[in-house]
Amino acid sequence: MPSTPSLKDLYLQRSKHANYQLVHPLVAKLLGDTSDLPAGKLEVARQTYFDRALPLLGARVLDIGANTGYFSFGALDSGAQHVTCYEGNQEHAAFVAHCAEQAGLADRLRMNACYFDFLAPISETFDVTYCLNVLHHLGDDFGDQSLSVDAAREQMIKSLRHMAGLTRVLVLQLGFNWKGDVRCPLFDGGEKAALIDFVAQGVGDSWVIEEVTVPNPVSRVYEPISEDNLPRNNQVGEFMNRPLFKMRSRVLV
Predict the structure, then answer these.
(1) Sheet of 207-215: strands edge to edge?
(2) Whole-angstrom Cα distance, residue 186 to residue 84?
(3) CA distance 233 to 241
(4) Dist. CA 52–CA 6, nearest whole Å
(5) Which of 57, 98, 109, 141 lies 20 to 30 A from 235 at CA?
(6) Taking the alpha carbons of 222, 47, 172, 9 in that order, is the dihedral positive or negative?
(7) DSSP string for 70-118
(8) What is the pLDDT of residues 72-93, one digit of tens each?
(9) pLDDT tens per residue, range 170-203
């Protein structure tokens, strides 16, 4: 009879988005030695910003594309009442669910081991939603794989507009390349200004964009967009150029 994989085995399963996030301190102790795990992608810096900018205390939070749960557990650690997760990678979903159970948090976290349907009828609303580096994979990891890049862009905007009826606050991060493929840029020149304009023009009647931030390449602190940090910085890599949007719904007040 095959043995049940350990939490660390689940975390280390090889897949397209494996070993992407840090392990949150709430659950790291469950894995034993974590010194050999990946360094992550600015999770600590983003969580620090979320703790400052978002109404997490007592909140009902939705985490779309939860991966291995850093921001789900971060929300709980910051006082969220409950977190609902969607994660289509079965090993990642199992990792988060088992961590929550072993950490005594199963009553505050619900894992849906499937991809989120951005256009489904809304049956539940949330105070805060994370949609971090998910939508540029539309037509690849999830959604209609026959979409063209232009149709994918249109559906991304349609999805964001629909979400204004789902959550009061949305934190959005979007990659520059469709499906993560540098041969398929979503925005001319891969510029932050083009990405910001795409979101602002597409959702202005559904969302108020309260703040757009990017990480300072030296301090790694997320800072408001400005003339100084708006130009693309090719020295720091694509991820550190991705703006982070804090948006408030015009539908749910």
Answers:
(1) 109-112, 82-86, 60-64, 126-132, 167-173, 244-249, 207-215, 222-224
(2) 29
(3) 7
(4) 34
(5) 141
(6) positive
(7) HHHHHHHHTT-SEEEEE---HHHHHHHHHHHHHTT-GGGEEEE-S---T
(8) 999 999 999 999 999 999 989 9
(9) 999 999 999 888 889 998 778 999 999 999 999 9
Cβ atoms of 241 and 192 closer than 8 Å: yes
Helices (H), 1-42: 7-11, 25-28
Question: CA–CA separation, 65 vs 22, rounded Å?
Answer: 15
Q: Is the pTM of this model over 0.70?
A: yes
Report the DSSP pairing between strands 167-173 and 126-132: parallel
> Is there a contact between 217 and 236 (Cβ–Cβ < 8 Å)?
yes
Residue with structure tokens 């409950």?
A: 82
Residue showing tokens 């703790």: 51
Half-sphere exposure at residue 217, Cβ-oriented, CA atoms within 13 angstroms: 15
SS3 159: helix
